[in-house]
Amino acid sequence: MARVPTEAEFKRLVTVASQGRYGPRNRMTLMLSYLAGLRVGEIASLRWGDLLENEGKVREQLRLSAAVTKGGHARVVFLSARLRKEVEQYRGSLAQPPAPLHLVLVTQKRSTFSANTLCQLMRGWYDLAGLEGGSSHSGRRWLITRLAHAGISPKAMMMLA
Question: Are 140 and 41 in contact (CB under 8 A)?
Answer without folding.
Answer: no
